[in-house]
Input
Amino acid sequence: MLSTTFITDGKGKKISAVLPIKLYQQWLDELEDLEDIRAYDKAKAKKEKPIPLRDAIQQRRKKQKA
Output
């Protein structure tokens, strides 16, 4: 069972939640996975020709120096 404690304001309105750290970490991990999936889908939708990782890193370094 999920044990969540809510913090309320003076009127009793829930303004925050205290979650078990394991659940919080699980949600963070799942959000990171979702961000990776969305980035992949966005890149895939561009239908650009893939380039080797080594070349991508070199291009990125050149942009950072400029």
Observations:
- The mean pLDDT is 91.
- The beta strands are 5-8, 14-18.
- Residues 21-45 form the longest helix (25 residues).
- The chain is about 60% helix and 15% strand.
